[in-house]
Amino acid sequence: MQLIVELVTAIPLEKSVSALTVLDDELYVAQSASHDIDVFDVELFSHQRRMTVASVQRTLLTVLSFSRASGFNIIDMTSCRLHRCLYVANGYAGMVHRLDRGNAKEVTQWSVGSMSLVGLSVIDSTSNVLVCCSDSPTLRMYTPLGCPVCEISVQQPAVVGLLNGLQLNCGSFVVVGLTDTGDRLVCVHRNNSDSTDVIDSSGCVTHVAVVGGSNGGRVWLAERGAAAGVRMVQVHTASQCSGMLPTIEAEEPEKIWWVQNNHRMYIVDRGHVKVFHVKRKYDI
């Protein structure tokens, strides 16, 4: 299989990008150490507006019980197609904020306690929110209003935290795990059997996204290192769950977002947003 990859645009921004997501016809970008979200259209990539995240309520529980800093720093972001909203992870306070996509007005918020919040994703089938923390090997699932649903413990030797995670159509979870030596592993956790398999990777994995389409067993892996790029990987149902497929070239990819219907890959590469149009050969 081959990929035909075309760079659509690179978006210049003042500061390094910490998170991005795409919802309908808009691209949402958060820059480091900021509570602002810049919004671009996805056709001409012109700047539409800048939204400031303003929490409607500050909880004493967050500030006093967990001794959190009072600042606001968006370290990850995702979106929900059903509820047409954004979710942002505030790294300073350990809070998840659900926001109105039009003006960033807060709909609700919830705390992850003393855990170090780093990653968010939305499960398409249920619209529930998956939360990853870098100091816990447990996936935490919440309803769209922040009510706890369940916790999924990823049992993999040496994994002490999770950096990013998502759920496949089959129900399994793919996570980027952090080990006690600081290395990273990509694991497939099969919820129906509580077993975990490791996906072979070519470098240091930073982020994961579902390829989508009729075959729900493929994911994109963003990798840094000697083999830096965004790689498509086949996740099999057998215990050997890796098979390397083509790569989108990138220098130091940190975050990725894949839009299946127009075959666009959005990459935070060296702190900047790059947009690629990607086609598999048999799509043409």
Describe what is shown at a glance:
With 284 residues, this protein is mainly β.
What features would you describe in this structure?
There is one protein chain. 2% of the residues lie in helices and 56% in strands. With 284 residues, the protein is mainly β. The chain has a single domain, classed as YVTN repeat-like/Quinoprotein amine dehydrogenase (Methylamine Dehydrogenase, Chain H). The strands form six sheets. It has a four-stranded antiparallel beta sheet with strand order 1-24-23-22, with no helix packed on it. The longest helix is centred in the first third of the chain and has 6 residues, at 60-65. The radius of gyration is 18 Å and the shape is globular. Residues 56-69 and 237-242 have low confidence and may be disordered.
Which strand order do you get reading across the main beta sheet? 1-24-23-22
- What would you call the shape? globular
- Give me the CATH superfamily: YVTN repeat-like/Quinoprotein amine dehydrogenase
The count of strands amounts to 24
SSE topology sketch:
Elements: E1 3-11, E2 17-23, E3 26-31, E4 36-41, E5 47-52, H1 60-65, E6 74-80, E7 85-90, E8 95-100, E9 106-111, E10 117-122, E11 129-133, E12 136-142, E13 148-153, E14 159-167, E15 173-179, E16 184-190, E17 195-199, E18 204-210, E19 218-224, E20 229-234, E21 244-248, E22 253-259, E23 264-269, E24 272-280
Antiparallel strand pairs: 1-24, 2-3, 3-4, 4-5, 6-7, 7-8, 8-9, 10-11, 11-12, 12-13, 14-15, 15-16, 16-17, 18-19, 19-20, 20-21, 22-23, 23-24
Key terms:
284 residues; mainly beta; Methylamine Dehydrogenase, Chain H; four-stranded antiparallel sheet; 1 helix; 24 strands; 2% helix; globular
